[in-house]
């Protein structure tokens, strides 16, 4: 049997070393021959490739071929899997996505609210171009596993513009939440945690979580109510220490998100919310908490980004690698396990973003929803859910239509539909604010967005 080639689009990402490690650790299950890093930023990708090469040769002792390229034909020719992790505009544009809305009193976040809509308009074109390039060069039975943000808008654009694409859109945030739950409840083996979930991407709820015979949903609700945060004990202790000493990590934006789970559960205790619902249900409090001069983009650039590239420089100068300088975790494991399930027809259960087609009976047939599915060689077999209560359906419909309108704005070059999308989004308080934020983001995205008339 011919061995497989896997391509990472966005090879210059700080997540790339960890993802490659996860892929290569599954070499046998993936029948792996070659890993390709593909990025339009050659300088950045070359630096990341230094660490990737070290992981392959020194840490894993692997003979898997590593190819590093900026050429689409070379990257995709005969590829079986394409892992897409694009960040169109880089952290420079993410910073604008976050800070510009804040200047108008709106949530500043990269995938939610006006920042997410801006990011979506930047990403639709490159994603459609990627699908066309992969279709041209890759194996006929290829799969694109897309976790490029904002996944909800990207998946809707793919559904509408390339309905026959062999693409599965996914997000690892629910997995990150499960990891936090496992840590909080002292569970080591997350592979035995099973859960049900419904929603849109970055906009959903866990309806059940079990571990063997244990009902973790009720346990974690009690834990959050007691600790007033969804973080494991060791994180909570470190947070207390940081606050006592005035350490900057005590006010990092991500802490507010995990604390907000408590507030949301106090109001709506039936289901455990995805942490991203903070931005929609606690808009006012989120804006008040955010620092308009130091947003999450700055935090990431000052930590994960800085650590990786300083680690590369140290390795090139001394030959020594600090493994803490690159990120490896459940993100890479999960996406690699998804590829294993597709290749080996395992029918393993994953959470995917997929066209509804009745999976949630009281949501539109063509809605791109996030629900569990069994994954085999033919793609997702979606698990049908019960009808969802009116409150949650109403929230989802408002968000869904905001996302649909921004995709239509892209396709039709429509300023009016963009304004409708912004006005409908729950993070924006009025049509006047929506117009002001939209106009400001148009100026900042002139080289990325289509012209809106």
TrEMBL record:
Q: Where is this site: Increases basicity of active site Tyr?
A: 110
> Which residues are listed for substrate binding in this entry?
94, 149, 296
Residues annotated as domain Glycosyl hydrolase family 4 C-terminal: 197-427
Amino acids binding Mn(2+): 171, 202
Single GO term (MF) = oxidoreductase activity, acting on the CH-OH group of donors, NAD or NADP as acceptor
Report the co-factor binding details. Binds 1 NAD(+) per subunit.
Record key words, sorted: Cobalt, Glycosidase, Hydrolase, Iron, Manganese, Metal-binding, NAD, Nickel
The name this protein carries in UniProt is 6-phospho-alpha-glucosidase
């Amino acid at each position: 049997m011919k061995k497989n080639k896997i391509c990472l689009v966005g090879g210059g990402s700080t997540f790339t070393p960890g993802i490659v490690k996860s892929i290569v650790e599954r070499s046998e299950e993936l029948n792996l021959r070659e890993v390709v890093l593909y990025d339009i930023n050659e300088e950045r990708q070359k630096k990341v490739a230094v660490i990737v090469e070290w992981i392959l040769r020194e840490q894993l002792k692997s003979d898997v071929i590593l190819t590093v390229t900026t050429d689409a034909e070379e990257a995709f020719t005969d590829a079986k899997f394409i892992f897409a992790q694009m960040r169109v505009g880089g952290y420079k544009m993410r910073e604008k996505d976050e800070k510009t809305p804040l200047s108008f009193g709106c949530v500043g976040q990269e995938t939610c609210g006006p920042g997410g809509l801006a990011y979506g308009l930047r990403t639709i074109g490159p994603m459609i171009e990627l699908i066309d390039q992969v279709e041209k060069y890759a194996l006929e039975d290829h799969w694109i596993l897309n976790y490029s943000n904002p996944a909800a808008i990207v998946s809707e654009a793919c559904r509408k513009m390339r309905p026959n694409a062999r693409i599965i859109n996914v997000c690892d945030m629910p997995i990150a939440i499960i990891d936090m739950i496992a840590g909080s409840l002292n569970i080591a083996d997350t592979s035995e945690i099973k859960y049900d979930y419904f929603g849109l991407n970055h906009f959903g709820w866990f309806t059940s979580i079990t571990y063997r015979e244990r009902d973790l949903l009720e346990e974690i609700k009690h834990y959050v109510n007691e600790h007033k945060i969804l973080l494991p004990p060791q994180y909570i202790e470190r947070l207390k220490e940081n606050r006592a000493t005035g350490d900057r990590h005590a006010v990092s934006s991500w802490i507010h998100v995990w604390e907000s789970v408590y507030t949301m559960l106090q109001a709506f205790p039936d289901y455990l919310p995805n942490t991203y619902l903070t931005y929609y249900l606690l808009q006012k409090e989120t804006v008040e908490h955010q620092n308009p001069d130091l947003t999450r983009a700055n935090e990431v650039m000052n930590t994960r980004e800085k650590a990786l590239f300083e680690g590369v420089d140290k390795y090139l100068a001394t030959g020594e690698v600090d493994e803490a300088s690159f990120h490896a975790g459940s993100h890479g494991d999960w996406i690699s396990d998804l590829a294993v399930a597709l290749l080996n027809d395992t029918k393993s259960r994953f959470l995917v973003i997929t066209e509804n087609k009745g999976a949630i009976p009281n949501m539109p047939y063509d809605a791109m929803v996030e629900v569990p599915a069994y994954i085999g060689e033919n793609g997702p077999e979606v698990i049908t859910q019960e009808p969802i209560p009116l409150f949650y359906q109403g929230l989802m419909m408002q968000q869904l239509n905001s996302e649909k309108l921004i995709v239509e704005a892209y396709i039709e070059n429509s300023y009016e539909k963009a304004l409708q999308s912004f006005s409908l989004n729950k993070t924006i308080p009025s049509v006047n604010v929506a117009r002001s934020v939209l106009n400001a983001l148009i100026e900042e995205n002139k080289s990325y967005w289509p012209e809106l008339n």
